[in-house]
TrEMBL record:
Zinc found in the keyword field: no
InterPro entries the UniProt entry points to: ANKRD_45/46/60 (IPR039323), Ankyrin_rpt (IPR002110), Ankyrin_rpt-contain_sf (IPR036770)
Name of the molecule in the record: Ankyrin
Record bears the keyword Transmembrane helix: no
SUPFAM superfamilies: Ankyrin repeat (SSF48403)
ANK repeat residue intervals: 1-30, 31-63, 64-96, 97-129
UniProt keywords, alphabetically: ANK repeat
Amino acid sequence: TALMHAAYNGRLDIVRFLVEHGANINVKNSKNATPVIYATSNEHSAVVEYLMEHGADGEGQDCLGWNPLLIAAQCGNMDIIRILLRKNVNLNKQENSGKTSLMIAAENNNLDLVKLLVNHGCDVAIQDIHHHTACVIAAYHD
């Protein structure tokens, strides 16, 4: 859709126009991706913020189970993560292999993000499909 393309390309002006004229802010493509997932994937924080302020589903998951928080954790984009935290998204959502945003931060040795997520209440005991917690993952990637 036009909204997905605008979000993907970081065109806040077009995103704003389309939303103001009735575009479905939570439209999904064949892979279950939404405009906020596309904006997050390409690290367009202003677009993510606008979409979230106008009712985007910050917890929607694509066909692989990835949601905006998981994607932002993979990118290490603290601005987008803070936007999502302000909207109280579920910090413990898991993608299809069971990884949480905390596990992804640990895997990428992103200590600042690990601290931020733990301080906001991430569950450190959640296990992925291999029965690994974020602490075990951090040890593997140290």
